[in-house]
Design brief:
Elements (H helix, E strand, L loop, with lengths): L6 E8 L11 E4 L4 E4 L5 E7 L2 E8 L1 H6 L4 E7 L4 E7 L3 H8 L7 E10 L2 E2 L4 E11 L5 E11 L5 E8 L4 E6 L5 E6 L7 E7 L4
Parallel strand pairs: 1-7, 8-15
Antiparallel strand pairs: 1-4, 2-3, 2-5, 5-6, 8-9, 8-12, 10-11, 10-13, 13-14
């Protein structure tokens, strides 16, 4: 393809209120598998593109931190022209809904990373435990442990969906050799996600 016949895309990623740029968003161009990261002004650019429809997948740092899927935007590229595009990043609640689409009422998400002596990696175990309260048929208070166990993804990232509001949650990061570290966190009603970092140190 001659350079003069190629088209370009010049875009910007803005925050959910369209009031400021989003730095560090990852923008993936499906047609070429090229990926770029937005600069301090939220801007990105792709050059040397063929004429037609090109699909962009945009992952903001917020969405990335809780494992939400990227946003999708189609742009029309014309030969020899620069196509401008603008992407609006999701709000926190929109990102949470994308990461946990079936989130029960009055629950939230705990998201974070597990760091071991060799860094943050996939395959670490994360155990989340909290207590549920109820009443027995005899009218007595019952307390049962609830929670889940999962594995970290790339970069040591994890998310726990469906954590009840305001209940203390004990999170334990466990390395393959059995070393572990725990901390406690809760999800406030006015903010649907709590971010944590679990560091498991060398013996």
């Amino acid at each position: 393809m001659l350079e003069s016949a190629a088209g370009s895309v010049a875009g910007v990623v803005l925050d959910s209120l369209l009031t400021g740029p989003v730095r560090g968003a990852r923008v993936h161009l499906e047609s070429t598998s090229e990926q770029v990261v937005t600069d301090a002004d939220g801007r990105f650019r792709f050059v040397g593109l063929g004429e037609g429809t090109h699909r962009l997948r945009v992952l903001s740092p917020l969405s990335d931190s809780i494992g939400a899927p990227p946003g999708v935007m189609d742009v029309e590229v014309e030969a020899g022209a620069i196509t401008s595009s603008r992407f609006q990043a999701p709000t926190l609640r929109q990102a949470v809904t994308g990461a946990c689409p079936d989130l029960p009422e009055e629950t939230g998400v705990v998201a974070g990373r597990v760091l071991g002596p060799l860094g943050a990696r996939a395959g670490y175990t994360v155990r989340a435990v909290w207590q549920d309260y109820g009443m027995s048929p005899l009218g007595r208070l019952t307390v049962t442990d609830a929670g889940m166990e999962l594995k970290t993804a790339d970069g040591g990232r994890f998310r726990v969906c469906g954590v009840p509001w305001e209940k203390p949650v004990t999170l334990t990061g466990i390395l393959p050799d059995g070393r572990e570290s725990s901390l406690s966190v809760s999800v406030p009603p006015d903010r649907p996600v709590a971010f944590v970092r679990i560091e498991v140190k060398a013996r």
